[in-house]
User: Fold these one by one.
Assistant:
Number 1:
Amino acid sequence: MLNRILVVGASAAGLTAAEALRREGFTEELTIVGDEPHAPYDRPPLSKQILRGTWEDDRTVLRSDALLAGLGATWILGTAATALDLPAREVTLADGRVLGYDGLVIATGAAARRLPFGHHLAGVHVLRTLDDTLRLREELKTACSVAIVGAGFLGAEVAAVVRELGLTVTMIDPLPAPMIRQFGPEPGELLRRLHEGHGVDVRCGVGVTALQGDGRVEGVELADGSQVAADVVLVAVGASPATGWLAGSGLPIGDGVECDQYCVAAPGVVAAGDVASWHHPGIGRRRLEHRMNATEQATNAARNLLGQGVPFEPVPYFWTDQYDVKLQVYGRSGAEFDFRIVAGDPAEGRFAALYGDGEQVVGALAWNLPRQARLLREHVVRSTPWNSAAHQELNSH
Amino acid sequence: MKVVLDQDKCIGSGQCVLSAPEVFDQRDDDGIAVLLAQPADAGTEEGTREAARICPALAITVAE
Ligand SMILES: Cc1cc2nc3c(=O)[nH]c(=O)nc-3n(C[C@H](O)[C@H](O)[C@H](O)COP(=O)(O)OP(=O)(O)OC[C@H]3O[C@@H](n4cnc5c(N)ncnc54)[C@H](O)[C@@H]3O)c2cc1C
Ligand code: SF4
């Protein structure tokens, strides 16, 4: 019998899990613990509308106060969970409190990765939270030149916003093109041209070896010996699952909390969102850092905590916005797959493409063709044979 | 039930169209969702609730 459910992590996944538990009929004691002081808010707008200043800061809240109150949960915000005792079914908080549970949802997300050097300098930022974003936005008001370390989706989105604000931007990455890991070489090359066309100095294929400055950052030193002057540096080198508080608990931790295909990590313990890796019945072990996945996985994890036994087998989806380009991906994508454009034309700034593993379609990409992305998703769902799909004439209904 | 769609928040993911094709479609040029009709029966209402739950941009609100 589940009398007390504890959710750790009060963001997209944690909130969704709590709502799903109520919807699925759990009426007993529900407690939500989060280390940020804010009520749950949404992260994708941080590197877009919030950083640019086109949205009021409070527009990123996930739910109104009334909806939050309607959940009938106890909220413990601004307080981190520091330890889990699995056999005793207890979680310890930073303020010393110990909370017992019958069911536990782990939704602690991920934290920005840092460079092994330079973060003590003023002007060096990471971007993961609302507070990070407001700090960076404030400094951009007086900055002239910004160096962005990392050309993954966060680095590339911020480069676009900072250019739109009129500042000088250098984006640096050891890989040969922006977002090549996510999209593969052809879209990576298009992204490089997109950013260069907007005036970003793109330095790909070269890493950063040091941040220079005394007290305040003044520049970045690259592996090829060159130097880039910057009065603000954003380190956007990825995120690591927030599993530190689970060390020594006995839970299986690899790249995230390792769950089975039901998002279950141990009896009475589920995990969801950026922190969770799970066994996708179709494609094997996965951990996704995508907004859509936080919602879908938290819903599934909540249902399985209540014993419903539904395997989690989504078609992954994510998007990124850079300048006036919207990129969307369904399924799997990346340099390891075949890639073929099936609609539109990169020269016209709109196209859609498929990814294949040699035999079948595994993913679809749309560059400013959002409606086609959804139609191409069908090929991913049906695992259309690569040969027939690649010759497919895409007609938009 | 009444559905309200905030096109300004919508990021064109198309998830709502997958859940409730009777209620939502996407504009051809930018993929932004449009309301085709208010849900008319229980099945469509459930699909619409699902759309509001999974919309990654929180652009759909449902008043019961
Ligand atoms: C700037 C930015 C832009 C993004 N843009 C996109 C996008 O365009 N498209 C897309 O698909 N995805 C995007 N994402 C990814 C998406 O936001 C994440 O996948 C999503 O936020 C994951 O939700 P989550 O609840 O699993 O984790 P998180 O949102 O990381 O939330 C975890 C919460 O748990 C808290 N926590 C951590 N440790 C503890 C602890 N020990 N005790 C208590 N609380 C703890 C954290 O502080 C945090 O509040 C973006 C992410 C960022 C940061
Ligand atoms: S699910 Fe939400 S973001 Fe996606 S198209 Fe529909 S309204 Fe827009």
Number 2:
Amino acid sequence: MPFSRALNAGLRRAMTENDRVIMMGEDIGRLGGVFRVTEGLQAEFGEQRVLDTPLAESGIVGTAIGLAMAGFRPVCEIQFDGFVFPAFDQITSQLAKITNRHEGALSMPVVIRIPYGGHIGAVEHHQESPEVYFTHTPGLRVVSPSTPNDAYWMIQDAITSTDPVIFLEPKSRYWQKGEVDAAARALPLHASRLVRRGTDVTLVGHGAMVATLLQAAALAESEGTSCEVIDLRSLSPVDYGPILDSVRRTGRMVYAQEAPGFTSLGSEVAATVMEKAFYALEAPVLRVSGFDAPFPPAKLEGTFLPDADRILEAVDRTLAY
Amino acid sequence: MHQNTGPDDAPELVRVLAADGSVAPTPAAEPYLELIDALTDAELEGFYRDMFVVRAFDQQATNLQRQGQLALWPPSFGQEAAQVGSARAARPQDHLFPSYREHVVCMIRGVDPVDIIRVMRGLTHGGWNPADPKNGNTHIYTLVLGSQTLHATGLAMGLTLDGKSGSGDPQTDEAVIVYYGDGASSQGDVHEAMVFAASYRTPEVFFLQNNQWAISVPVATQSRSPLYRRGAGYGIPSIPIDGNDVLASYAVTRVALDEARAGAGPRAIEAMTYRMGAHTTSDDPTKYRTADEEESWARRDPIARMRAYLRGRGASDAFFAEVEAQAAAVAEDARVRTAALGGIPTDLMFDHVYTEPHPLIDEQRAWLAGYEASFEEEPS
């Protein structure tokens, strides 16, 4: 099943199981969303539960907060990553802090779905990686699935959570197919996942980058280097157990991400691994990132975004220590 | 310097009491007179009592800030009529969203004034639980301008979705009233709230207190046309009132809330009033406005106006003396209880960041506990 259909099935199941779950966003009703993730939901659940909102991102998130106060579980769609910033105040100053501000008297079970990342050749504001703005904000949970099965289960787990969840959908994965096991979830929402076993270098990443890491691992294998691959899945909180276990075995780690590297998720994970597994490391943890420049015009995205070769270059560097 | 007077000559302005306390309804007030005539002496005296008591409390809190007991205080001095009239117009089942100056709105709904002081003393970011029945569905203060207008609109959308509004029974149908100021009216969130409210026909009243100044910036810099006229652009009926006339505030809000809860869609009210004090205890109004302007508004004081009106109706000296005594007692009680407020445990900062377990929070809470304990173990 394609990733986008898996999300659609997960949303449908969440709406079926709990009639307080409502969807809201621009063009999500009749159109089914620009990526068709909500396709058919309005026809099935009605206009009262799948709201085509006015074109106003702060309005979407701010009213979702009020709806949560009224006992609903809103799932907001932000149409593209670069359009989340008009809602930034409502997400970081309000949504993230309302439970804390109310001393626990109110919970905020709101999910903000954001298609993010590059590889679709789009114009400015339609390809960004804003994850650390949200991981830096206490009160928010941030997750990003990389497979259809995770998409199907993680969206349901995000909706079930009583905390606000920023749900980052790697848009280049929307059309990728994979098995979905609708009978049982593989992992809890905030668990990282060991994707591929290896012995020489631990490769860690999230979202669309997991597929690139696997590609790099396959290429490294052909050159005689065995790479372990870990999918972070949860960006806040980070599940360090599998990462530390892996690094203690391999002694080397590379983090790859589409986002700019400065004060990034890779920086955070690298620092923590250094603090907690210092004596296991044979080499510094290396980061492979998008450059610290605005996301470029689409014709340059192939250079901007880390590919398997740039990951392998880092693997070579870490092995050279 | 810019002179703020407010559009007192607006043909739509609703005013019942003139500045001298005489009954002199504007033509726009005519539809509301029956509602006002139905008010009992006790209710009218209650409006005065609310205004007088909160002014004493507000002065006490301002003094407490000057004495270093509070980090900050946003005075409500001068805006008592707009707040008391609108709050008394709400029904018990209605939901109220204040910004950060609506002290008497909160008190009328049952919030302990010392819970407001706790926020300004630095003991909490909230102060009270809006879901606790004793707080009368009153939400906590919002410090980011205009944010709460969207929360109010979302909650009002929820009332509609749940069929808690528009059934035709004003005794049970619920509505929402949200407070904001002339400065906040420039914020995008207020605009988006009005777009959503109009689109989804929310049972909601937008209550704008135009106190003429956004800290040091006059309302003319916020809007080149009277703010209430913006309502028409959203399709939201909007009414300007003399915000220093508690009767106008009460009657217009009462009707607007009833219309909203009956399913007629949102309503907006612009209360023309004046902040007689500073924006907060951190600013100095003499730097940005004239004594002439302040005096012109002092002559339109809401409490003096109501006092003259009640005297004309025959209220007794004993009544006024009793209100004075009550106000002094409330202010003194606030002073005493503020001084008695204790500290807060350091690990409070980790409480309620999340509702579900979070390893980073758990780790840091444990680290801080160990760190603090390490000092206790050292010999003194």
